Amino acid sequence: MSKKVVVKRTILLIDIILYSIYIAIGYIFINHTKCFNFPVVKNVYLVFFILAMLFIVAHFLNKRYHDYEFLTNALISILSGTYILLLHDLGNINVTIQNAILLFAILMIINKWFNTCRLYNRKNINFFPKMVVTLLLILYGLFTLIILYNRFTSGSFGYLLLGHFFVIIGVISLLEPLFLVIMRSPYVEGYLLKKFKFEEEKPKKKPTRLKEIRKKKPVVKTNKKD
């Protein structure tokens, strides 16, 4: 197995683990009364900070060339967590969570769309799965916006919404590495490359600089007579 194949599989594995954590977090929020006995209200912001840390770790493990999507997601998670941390005591916690979800969803979709356009401009074959996932996230974002417009504030609606939000975002995001696996098929990859004239992303090599060769001074031999 070549080193290139191992690197690609490692990147896909990291993506799958990261998005599976999304689903796990959503499940915990949906069933928080069964999973934990400590007050969840005061710890909601920690989820976003943990996600930020995971995004940063995933970025440095993936080592994708000029790809800062995970780093940007980390910043978005920090902003959302900070919003909840600063405002959860000033009003209804459910409203605060809903606003944080809206902030997180909008910024994440913008980030995903920006990276989709970047891949398209580079004629990168990975544009196709990212485009599909981005469109699904936009549709779900609009659906979430309609729900938030109703401004439900009673009971534990905020936690349920946050839980379902993470589960659905995780499931949709898992489609991207799944599509990348399907595209590794020679038939699918060959068709896309031929049909759309796209190419695989190849890291640019750093230009090599020629070292200056210094001319050696001629050594003059002198015959010393005793």
Overall structural domain count: 1
Rg is 25 Å
Kindly state the number of beta strands.
0
Poorly predicted runs are none
**Quick check: average pLDDT?**
76
Class by helix and strand content? Answer: mainly alpha
SSE order in H/E notation? HHHHHHHH
Structure description:
Helix content is 71%, strand content 0%. The longest helix has 29 residues, at 93-121. The termini are far apart. α4 (69-87) packs antiparallel against α5. It is globular and about 70 Å long. The mean pLDDT is 76. It contains eight helices and no strands. It has one domain (3-196). The protein has 226 residues and is an all-alpha fold.
Short key terms for the protein model shown above:
226 residues; mainly alpha
List the topology elements:
Layout: H1 3-30, H2 32-35, H3 44-62, H4 69-87, H5 93-121, H6 127-149, H7 157-183, H8 186-196
Helix pairs in contact: 1-3, 1-7, 3-4, 4-5, 5-6, 5-7, 6-7
Short description:
The protein is an all-alpha fold and about 230 residues long.
